[in-house]
């Protein structure tokens, strides 16, 4: 029996020793796989809203200023005025009044416009022009109730109207200009110089009034 007990004790001791042998590293502490938390992405909108960057119009991409419009010197607004002018009749006896409309850019131009109408051939068949064809008008100015009509001096060389012609020419200018309420008389000049007469028949050394005709 002692022999049997001894064999059992030896077997038990062998098993204990074998159980105490060191295990391989992978069996001693098996690696632990870390747990990775996964996040579910937010749902994607079918039509995502894209925000546009805010642009300050005063600093970035400013709107261009409209070009300034500069009026040309000949682009002045003109206005129409009505005139009553006097032409001699075909017989060369009487002065006949007719209406005309002219365009002026300034009120002061109406006096020159009126005299210029008298230098053009009238459209009425029973009226005639008294100014010579080569007559030129230097200027027409107004001051203190008097209109100064400055003619080119060559008018005296081509004027062949005699006393009646001179009276009709002076009368047509004076009666036309005195239709303006502010005009009281007319002073005739040749190349800026005062004159005594045009063709030696009328005294033009002083301004002429309508009552002098």
Question: Mind explaining what this structure looks like?
Answer:
With 213 residues, the protein is of the alpha+beta class. Helix content is 24%, strand content 19%. The protein is built from five helices and six strands; from the N terminus they run ααββαββααββ. The strands form two sheets. It has a four-stranded mixed beta sheet with strand order 3-4-5-6. α3 runs antiparallel to α5. It is rod-shaped.
Rg measurement, Å: 59 Å
Helix content class: 10-25%
Task: Name the beta content range.
Answer: 15-25%
How many helices in DSSP terms?
5
Spatially, the strands of the biggest sheet line up as 3-4-5-6
Question: Alpha-carbon distance between the termini?
Answer: 186 Å
Mean pLDDT score, rounded? 80
| Coarse morphology | rod-shaped
One letter per element, helices H and strands E, the order comes to: HHEEHEEHHEE
Q: Enumerate the spans where pLDDT stays under 50 for 5 or more consecutive residues.
A: none
By DSSP, the count of extended strands is 6
Oligomer: single chain
């Amino acid at each position: 029996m002692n022999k049997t007990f001894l064999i059992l004790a030896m077997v038990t001791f062998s098993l204990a020793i074998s159980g105490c042998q060191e295990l391989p590293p992978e069996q001693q502490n098996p690696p632990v796989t870390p747990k990775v938390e996964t996040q579910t992405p937010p749902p994607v909108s079918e039509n995502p809203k894209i925000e546009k960057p805010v642009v300050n119009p005063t600093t970035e991409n400013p709107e261009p200023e409209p070009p300034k419009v500069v009026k040309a010197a000949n682009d002045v607004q003109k206005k129409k005025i009505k005139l009553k002018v006097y032409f001699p009749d075909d017989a060369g006896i009487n002065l006949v009044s007719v209406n005309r409309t002219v365009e002026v850019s300034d009120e002061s131009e109406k006096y020159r416009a009126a005299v210029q109408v008298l230098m053009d051939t009238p459209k009425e068949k029973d009226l005639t022009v008294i100014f010579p064809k080569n007559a030129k008008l230097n200027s027409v100015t107004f001051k203190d109730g008097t209109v100064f009509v400055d003619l080119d001096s060559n008018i005296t060389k081509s004027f062949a109207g005699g006393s009646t012609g001179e009276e009709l020419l002076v009368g047509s200018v004076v009666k036309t200009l005195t239709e303006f309420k502010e005009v009281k008389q007319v002073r005739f000049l040749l190349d800026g110089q005062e004159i005594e007469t045009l063709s030696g028949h009328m005294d033009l050394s002083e301004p002429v009034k309508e009552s002098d005709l």
